Amino acid sequence: MINAQTIRAALRTFKQRKIMSIAQLVGLLNCSVPTVRNRLKEWNTFTSYNKNGSYYTLPGIPEFDKNGLWKCKRVFFSKHGNMKQTIIQLVKSSESGLDAAQIGRLLGLMPRSFTSHLKDLP
Fold it and tell me: Inter-axis angle of helices 100-107 and 83-93, to 10 degrees?
């Protein structure tokens, strides 16, 4: 069990750094990976849609743009969820749909990095 003081200190550090990985949080909280994952869920964190989803940020930290996207230190986050959910939302909210190049520009990614994951989407 993690004591309240350790949790408060970890949250202060998290807020200062803005984004953190599970490994960093394991070190701060001095606990296991499953325990950190449970904390991240409790804290309603956002997960990065790039960098293999290995970074997290707390609610209230991201300043999402009009598309619901936020970038911090080359790590990208979406208020819509994972990459697939984000792309669906971006296309739905566009006036006439988006092609891969347009989606890539919005996401800050090369289309080849995400198009294979979308082949089954209508």
Answer: 110
